[in-house]
Design goal:
Pathway: Cell wall biogenesis; peptidoglycan biosynthesis. The chain is α+β, with helices and mostly antiparallel strands and 413 residues long. It folds into 3 domains: 111 residues, no CATH class; 204 residues, L,D-transpeptidase catalytic domain-like, CATH 2.40.440; 64 residues, no CATH class. Helix content is 38%, strand content 17%. The chain has 14 helices and 17 strands. Strands 1, 2, 3, 4, 5, 10, 11, 12, 13, 14 and 15 form an 11-stranded mixed β-sheet that branches. Strand 1 and strand 2 form a beta hairpin. Helix 3 packs antiparallel against helix 4 and helix 8 runs antiparallel to helix 9. The protein starts with a helix and ends in a 5-residue tail after the last helix.
């Protein structure tokens, strides 16, 4: 008797259209409604170049067109609406003009087969899109600011365009699920440590010169070096140190530099006359001897550096040039990030991201010997290029386009 009643109930539901069965494309009616709701206000700012297709979908609710739009929307969300091929071409042109510039593009693969399977399984559109939604608080804040200013209708088009461009840049950042990260915002000349959406450390930085730019990328912090030695990169040795040394025999002494066979301070000490300086004056490639500045109170790296290993040999560090932090535009480094308050950064990271005590660290600090401290809790470091930023007080900040990325990055729509 119970089985008969159940059969009757299911039949009645089917006859009344209450069972949401997928169509030939895998769409359930509830998914179509949800997707159209997302598209109505372009919830994730990813319609971009597909507005004409959206109009067709809105009018017809054709499942094939809707599948095509969902795939495009997801791809725009995952990989931005910036014209990537044109941007890469512009970057190559700048490098040919001897600009040292790098902007990492973290492209994600959008699996169309998986999306279709998710549709057929009845998963919500929000769940399908979720893996591609940037988790950085900057994405949500810029998106909200953009919508608010659009609705008010009194903001200049150029400002709206600038905000939108930065929304797209956040999409291009390294996909990240950690709620804790350090963000170096290059055009703002500022670094923040952000934990669970809150700023816990905030200070000024000096970034790379306009022709020796701090690269845009993301890597995990791995080590802190207390009392670092400065290992002069071969490129700087060739193009700065050796030319000056050839002109001034006392240059090494003035700059507190020594020459050794490698970057080990225990390796044999060499004199300038022991090596062929002229052969490595300018140009590119490795130099078979190394210039080192040993740890000291006057070391160019200061007393501490923070290593997030990368292909660009870029890191955060202390600096002797404290006077630069009084300037509004701070593009003076060879690409590394100089910290305004390195001691504050050191204490916070030691306390929250290592197993080393602050007392032990202070002993290392006072020893003037080089010590490496491992990071034991994950902290990604992202060097970003955001010319608009919404601060903790909810105010929009706008910065100069110091590296011309606003100029050469074009939207596809």
């Amino acid at each position: 008797m119970k089985i008969s009643v159940l059969v009757v109930m299911v039949s009645a539901l089917l006859l009344n259209g209450c069972v949401d069965t997928p169509d030939s494309e895998g769409w359930h009616s509830s998914q179509k409604d949800e997707f159209l709701d997302i598209l109505e206000n372009d919830r994730y700012a990813s319609l971009c170049d597909q507005k004409a297709l959206y109009q067709k979908v809105k009018e017809s609710e054709d499942s094939k067109l809707m599948s095509k739009l969902l795939l495009s929307y997801t791809n725009n969300l995952a990989n931005s609406c910036i014209d990537i091929p044109a941007f890469k071409k512009a970057q190559e042109a700048r490098r040919s003009e001897k600009f040292k510039t790098h902007f990492e593009i973290y492209e994600e693969e959008v699996d169309s087969k998986r999306i279709k399977m998710q549709l057929q399984a009845g998963e919500s559109i929000e769940k399908i899109l979720q893996p591609y939604v940037p988790t950085y608080r900057e994405f949500e804040r810029l998106l909200m600011m953009y919508r608010t200013l659009q609705a008010q209708g009194n903001m200049e088009a150029s400002t709206l365009h600038k905000i939108r461009l930065n929304i797209e840049r956040v999409k291009l950042m390294k996909p990240e699920r950690s709620r804790n990260y350090a963000l170096v915002n290059i055009p703002e000349f500022r670094v923040r440590i952000i934990e669970d959406g809150k700023t816990v450390v905030n200070m000024g930085v000096v970034v790379g010169k306009k022709h020796m730019q701090t690269p845009v990328f993301g890597e995990d912090l791995k080590y802190i070096v207390v009392n670092p030695q400065w290992n002069v990169p071969d490129s700087i040795a060739r193009n700065e140190v050796i030319p000056k040394l050839l002109k001034d025999p006392d240059y090494l002494k003035k700059q507190r530099l020594v020459i050794r066979r490698d970057y080990n301070l225990e390796s044999p000490l060499l004199c300038a006359t022991d090596v062929n300086l002229t052969a490595y004056n300018g140009g590119k490639g490795p130099v078979p001897f190394k210039f080192i500045e040993p740890p000291s109170t006057k070391n160019g790296l200061g007393r501490v550096k923070f290593l997030f290993p990368n292909d660009h040999s870029v890191y955060m560090h202390d600096t002797q040039s404290k006077y630069l932090f009084k300037r509004k535009v701070r593009t003076y480094s060879h690409g590394c990030v100089r910290l305004e308050r390195p001691h504050k950064m050191l204490k916070y990271i030691i306390t929250h991201y290592t197993s080393t005590s602050w007392e032990e660290t202070q002993e290392m600090y006072e020893s003037f010997k080089t010590h490496y401290i491992a990071i034991t809790k994950r902290l990604p470091v992202h060097t970003a290029y955001l010319t608009t930023y919404v601060d903790d007080d909810g105010k929009l900040k706008i910065f100069k386009d110091i590296y011309r990325y606003d100029e050469i990055q074009k939207l596809k729509f």
